[in-house]
Amino acid sequence: MNVHVNSIEDFLKALVKELEVPDNRYEQAQTSYTSLGEWLHRPESTVRKYDPQVYCQGSFRLGTAIRPHTDEEEYDVDSVVELRSLTKRDKTQQELKAMLGVEIRAYHDAKGMVKPVREGNRCWVLDYADGAQFHMDVVPAVPNTEQQRILLEAKMLDTRWVSTAISITDRREPNYWILSEDWPRSNPKGYSYWFASRQAVVFERRKRAVFEEMQKQGFRASVEDLPDFKVKTPLQSAIMILKRHRDNMFARNLDLRPISIIITTLSAHSYENQDTISGALFTILDRMDQFIVHDGKKYIIANPTDPFENFADKWEREPQKADAFFQWLRQARTDFRAAAQATNYKGMADAVYQRMGYRAATSAVDRLTGGSRLLRAATGASAAGAGTVGAPSFANADRRPTKPQGYA
What we know:
Helices cover 45% and strands 12% of the residues.
């Protein structure tokens, strides 16, 4: 690998360091939903008989969470309370949510939490103290394994992930108030297992390396006891970079911002076990639109664990969202191509700072240069050094799918 490639890799590593969620935030999230689980299983709990299981979902579970822009912003920790001994025949969505709401409010009061419990469309929201800098969305759920299996088998579709399928509540649904088998579906555990399968080889290798390094520092537990959040793969790092790039590009138009599940899914499909962040990032940028299907009428980005769910379902009703995604992808390709062509760290920062953020880009350079600002002028000049060998070409930068395409 030549010096230039090492330089862009070092810059991306430093950039990820600026985006990473500190370990104590992961530990804080783990403590919070473990505490809630213990509360729901206490002897006086009104839902204990329904065998509640509390677990994390979303970016904290996947290891792709990024730190907020400022200390005033909060981390969003998503969790599920699955009442495993209940079914959709026992309660309406409204009854399930209200029943769990009683316990959520009791937990809030018992823990002396100041900010009131809020109700979202699908969840209850616990706002922790200002110093904690996070809130937890608690989604009520019941198992949905058998119904999901029937649906998939009827269409001869993959059933690998059905054992963790759940049904969730949503007060916007027409059946919210009545007994019905028709509930919104989800499968956060299954999705996390699928995501893990896309990086399993690299993850295990990196986990072993992290474990060996921690052993040198006195870590005495087994490798199995090493928390997953201690390990960061190139796939996770690339997704973190792309999410921050997206956030800044659409900071003034949040409604058009491509949703994280789309970026995460397309990135995981595109990833080919690269060992470097730069290798993963450029492969993802080059390939991710290949995993968007167009059936002649609409775009389809299927949930890998539930092919009946289309993550791009809003694109048909709001075509501007599709346009925004492809606009973002073109911009990301342009920005990171320019970074790859730059001949020094300042040029790399100049290429991406508008979308990655001034503070993140310049702090990344400071990490690499020992904090010496004499090595870079004020950010804003054009990137230096075009045409470096090995820079990505992104020949298909304007490509959109015109016919169904396969999934990896």
